[in-house]
Design brief:
single chain; 202 residues; mainly alpha; 2 strands; 4% strand
């Protein structure tokens, strides 16, 4: 049966209810037992059904469901879709100052990148997306004042940009390095990184 048919059967048996355009199991214990008893292929199918149902229901406004979509697609083993929605969610969370949500999505996105490496041969494309995730996480760490973690991610960004031989991304990493050094009072290092970034932009 298709995903929507499964949902309809669960609704008919009162195992699932619809509230405010969202679906939930009628009891937490039902969810726990069902999830534990399902074999991995069925759990993956359950999550895929949930993701596809969300996309169908919120077809005109999936932005509200980025977190749920990223989670369900990840658990379904659909790494590309999970990464896509997780990255969109992080980019949405940063300007809204939803830091914890953004960090959770960034972690999920990086896990999706790691999973994709086992099945995809386009390492460059994966690293481009990994770079974008790290760039967003750097912004969150900057807002939280977590300078050490910020510095660690910037170093990772520099390494990725170098491996990609991407001057634009190298400049972005250096600019973020300059901003961090300025914030911690390392003004000469900040100036040096900014000058390097400027040269790469030329």
């Amino acid at each position: 049966p298709g995903c929507m048919e499964i949902l309809e059967r669960l609704l008919e048996r009162h195992l699932l209810v619809e509230e405010n355009q969202k679906y939930r199991l009628t009891h937490a214990k039902i969810q726990e037992v069902l999830y534990q008893e399902l074999r991995r292929p069925w759990r993956q199918r359950w999550h895929l059904c949930a993701a596809q149902a969300l996309e169908a229901i919120y077809a005109t406004n999936t932005a509200e469901q980025y977190t749920q979509l990223a989670h369900h697609y990840f658990e379904a083993g659909r790494w590309k879709e999970s990464l896509n929605f997780a990255l969109k969610g992080v980019k949405q969370a940063v300007p809204a100052y939803h830091n914890e949500e953004g960090l959770g999505l960034a972690k999920l996105a990086l896990q999706a990148c790691d999973a994709l490496e086992r099945y995809e041969h386009n390492q460059a494309m994966i690293n481009i997306q990994r770079f974008d995730v790290l760039a967003q996480r750097v912004e969150i760490y900057a807002l939280q004042g977590l300078r050490e973690r910020q510095a660690q991610d910037i170093t990772k960004m520099e390494m990725l940009a170098e491996s990609l031989e991407d001057r634009h991304k190298q400049a972005i990493a250096l600019q973020k390095k300059s901003e961090l050094n300025f914030r911690v009072g390392k003004y000469s290092e900040a100036k040096e990184a900014a000058l390097k970034a400027s040269k790469l932009h030329q």
